[in-house]
Amino acid sequence: MGNLVFKNRNFLIKTRFGIFLILASGSFGFSLFILYKYWKSKKIFVNLEKNVQKLSVELDLLKNKQEEWEKFNDLKASEEKPRSRSITRNSSQSSFKTPPTSPERKKIDYKEEKYEILKQKFLNYQSYFNQKREFEETIEFLRLINALDEKEQDEEMKKKFRFYAFEVAKKCLKWNPESYLSHKWYAIYIGKISDYNNLNEKVKNGFEFKEHLDIAIDMNQDDFILFYLRGRWFYKMFSLSWPEKYAVKLFCRKMPEITIENALNDFLKAEQLNPKNSKINLLYIAKCLVAKNEKEKASQFLNEALNIKSQTAEEENDEKELLNFFKKLKPQIFT
Fold this sequence. Notes:
The chain is mainly alpha-helical. It is 74% helix and 0% strand. It is built from twelve helices and no strands.
């Protein structure tokens, strides 16, 4: 009887010890699994960072080669005899007209121009601006391309217009860095071509976009477009996901502290300078207010935006975005 009790006791001890070993080994195995996953993830990020650095070096080399080639072309162009071609500039028959997106506009509105007329003007004067021209003529040509871009619906043509205008804007900035308009239009077109850039170029050009807007605003604080564009940059940076913010840190080694107030203040300033005239600016004011959980106030700005008539293809796209946002917001206001 005693032997039986002793054997049962040994059996219970062994069983408990076995269960303990299983549990311990399970916890240890799980810990090893977590450590392995952490090590593997860290290795992936390290390799990614090395590849990004290598890519950045290669891009810098390509950029240097491109700059050397541009210098060669500029030197070659300067040696050629300039063409004697004038641009008429009387009030109603001007070769170029100021777009509706510019506060410098006078009596003539680009919205009145037909697409075919704008495109023909672009084709007529495209080669003319391959060389340095009068500053005002160059700015007017950039305005013309901007108006053409807003009316254009073919994506390939949009891309062509934007990249050509960016090259003109880059030369204009090089030749006239003392004017806020040079910085403004350079920022506008470096922003437009970002749709066709890879991630590294998007990040790099994004900070350059912001830098030239800051310079232009320091020079002139009465241009609502500058505040609207900078507000868009602030809103975009604020809305980045965690992986996107990590990518920015990898490329630029910095991530500025940005709040939704930065974006809202610029949009409100743009609205103050150009009241109830920009559908897209009112939409982004509403978006900022929703981010601040001020939904009823946001709906007021959306209603104001809906009362503005769309006159270009770009404004029609803005209206679609506006309506979709309003539909999502409406149930939240009345519940």
